[in-house]
Amino acid sequence: MSSETKPGGWALILGASSGFGGATALELARNGLDVFGVHLDLRQTLPNAEAVKAGIEAAGRRAVFFNMNAADAAKRADAVDAMAQAVAESGSYIRVVLHSLAFGTLLPFVPSTGSGRGAQDPKGALSQRQMEMTLDVMANSLVYWVQDVHARGLLRRGSRIFAMTSSGSTRVIRSYGAVSAAKAALEAHIRQLAFELAPEGIAANAIRAGVTDTPALRKIPEGRALHAKSMTGNPSGRATTPEDIAQAIAALIDPRLAWMTGNVIGVDGGEEITV
């Protein structure tokens, strides 16, 4: 049996404790995958990660979680070492990588004075450090994680790489500027990874979810209004849920879809086609 059809394997979920990452971790476990979960939670939100881990184990799969800053190179190296050991013990490989990190700064580039004229207070504007942090965590970290697991031989023919993007990669929301730039960069990274890994039979695609009620959306000042608009304007009659995305990813790892790579795949009930 080839690696493209061999059941099981591991999923590496970056952002595994809630939202798209948490739902996908649970869905892939129900579909027979063990899960490496990378998340960053303090005492208040740590129960979310523990609940996801328990759900994976209840499905009869292994759950190895790392509570860490996913953009820290040294901690990433330690985590990949541990993953390599677990993969070797199981005689398997990482079948799915999902990048679903949502940790960025939500500030306008230029603060408004109200009149549009005169001096502006730079304290209300995005800083260089905040811009670079947002792009590093929400876009560039995908490349670094893929580089590391690929270098260790943890990806094989049939592996799939997914990254969560949004319509913000091409649209403007006042507070979303840095995240919008990160999503655009993330889509570019997916195209490049798809191109470079295609000869190895490894596919990479971005998933553009519809507006979804997640902890990340609730942090966006305009988030609740966007979700309310989606609930009434989506032609399918409701807003997207994390479970919609999880089920789509579980379907997209089917070996019959190995030729699908380098895309931005909309999973939104038709939201994107409405005005």
Features:
alpha/beta; Rossmann fold; 14% strand; 42% helix; 8 helices; disordered N terminus; 7-stranded parallel sheet; 275 residues
Structural overview:
The chain is of the alpha/beta class. It has a single domain, classed as NAD(P)-binding Rossmann-like Domain (Rossmann fold, 3-Layer(aba) Sandwich), CATH 3.40.50.720. The protein is 42% helix and 14% strand. The protein has eight helices and seven strands, in the order βαβαβαβαβαβαααβ. It has helices spanning 19-30, 46-58, 73-90, 128-151, 177-197, 215-219, 223-233, 242-252; strands spanning 10-14, 34-39, 63-67, 94-99, 160-165, 203-209, 264-267. Strands 3-2-1-4-5-6-7 form a seven-stranded parallel beta sheet, with helices on both faces. β2, α2 and β3 (63-67) form a beta-alpha-beta unit. α1 (19-30) runs parallel beside α2, α3 packs parallel to α4 and α4 packs parallel to α5. It is globular, with a radius of gyration of 19 Å. The model is unreliable at 1-6 (pLDDT under 50).
Itemize the secondary structure elements and their pairings.
Blueprint: E1 10-14, H1 19-30, E2 34-39, H2 46-58, E3 63-67, H3 73-90, E4 94-99, H4 128-151, E5 160-165, H5 177-197, E6 203-209, H6 215-219, H7 223-233, H8 242-252, E7 264-267
Parallel strand pairs: 1-2, 1-4, 2-3, 4-5, 5-6, 6-7
